[in-house]
Structure formats: C-alpha cells, structure tokens
Design brief:
By secondary structure, the chain is an all-alpha fold. It has four helices and no strands. It has two domains: about 80 residues, Up-down Bundle (Four Helix Bundle (Hemerythrin (Met), subunit A)), CATH 1.20.120; about 35 residues, no CATH class.
Length: about 120
C-alpha cells in the first residue's frame, strides 16, 4: 500500500479513535448520573436500571471497537496494515474503506463468523 493511502487510513483511524473516546466518556458519565435522583419511584428506578444496562452494553461495544482501531494503528506502525492477519492476503480496498480497522479479508472474516477460523 502506498504512503498516501496509508496516511489516509491513519487519519481516518485516529478520527474514529477520538470519536470513540468521547462517546465512551459521555456514556460513562450518563451511566453515573442515571441513578442520582433519590426521589424517583420504583418504575423510574427500573427504567434507570434498564438505561444503565443499555449504556453499559454500548460502552462494551465501543471499547471493543476502540481495541480494533488501536490494533489497526499498530499494524500501520508495523507496516502490516491492509493485510489479512490470518492468510496474509491483501484486504480489499472497499472493505478497508468501510471498516478501516478490519483484521481479515472477506473470506477469512466469513470463516471466523462461522467458527471455522
């Protein structure tokens, strides 16, 4: 992959990383403030509990994506970005454009989702 394209993906990944960090921080803060009002009734407490669980799930998803983004940035440093981590074939440009933190080519990703990898 040429340096210009690599720099493009690096900028895209860094922007996604910043976005995820902001989302995680905001979600954590919203989760903390969901139970602060001591005068709420039982139904409100149940709704707040559900909200906290939902926010917790979102945070986990965002943190998992953040780990993938950090891994992609590390692969850029190691000059391995754009190669499938399993078969070492080049990851399709359209796939990288849609999901720049992708670790696998389409074939290996399908195998992983089916539990064959």
């Amino acid at each position: 992959m040429d340096k210009k394209r690599l720099e493009y993906y690096k900028k895209k990944l860094l922007a996604k990383r910043e976005e995820l960090l902001k989302i995680i921080a905001r979600t954590v803060e919203e989760g903390r403030t969901a139970d602060e009002d001591p005068t709420v009734d039982l139904a409100d407490k149940a709704a707040n509990s559900y909200t906290k669980e939902f926010l917790f799930g979102q945070t986990n998803h965002d943190r998992a994506t953040l780990l993938l983004v950090d891994g992609a940035l590390e692969r850029i440093k190691e000059d391995e970005f754009g190669l499938c981590t399993h078969c070492q074939q080049e990851v399709q440009q359209k796939r990288l454009e849609a999901v720049p933190w992708a670790r696998h080519c389409i074939t290996c990703q399908e195998k992983q989702e089916q539990g064959q990898l």
